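Record passed on here:
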Amino acid sequence: KVLFVLESPPDKSELRDFMYFYFTKHSNKYQPLYEETMKLMFKEFDRSKPKSEFLKKFQEKGFFIVDAAKCPVNKVAKKERDKVVECCGKKHLVNVIKNLKPKKIIVIKSNVFRKIKPILEENGIKVFNDRPVPFPAFGNQVEFRREMKKYIEID
């Protein structure tokens, strides 16, 4: 099992566009995390096919995602966002990870890595990546794929 830790679910305005990774309803809008992850893991990925098809393959390979923060923080100021991520990491994420028992944990996004890695390691939970994996948006798609290839096995 490989667990990817991300920042938070998207803000409600983005939910209308079905931007959340696990939402299965099709959207014509580019969904950076979902699409870049699936392109990396599955050669046969085709965004015109149902999301449920590739999400099932993702899960069958033992991959899953949790958010460090339970509430959306992507529309919150950076300082507040980091506080929420850190607080939720301490209060909830550690227990979630202990219950899931993943073999590998990969933290995505630099602020999440900076705030969450120390919390996990203080609780005896090893983070597999030694540097942040960037979120695959805003021109970071190539670096996202390059970093992810270092940490996961891809067919």
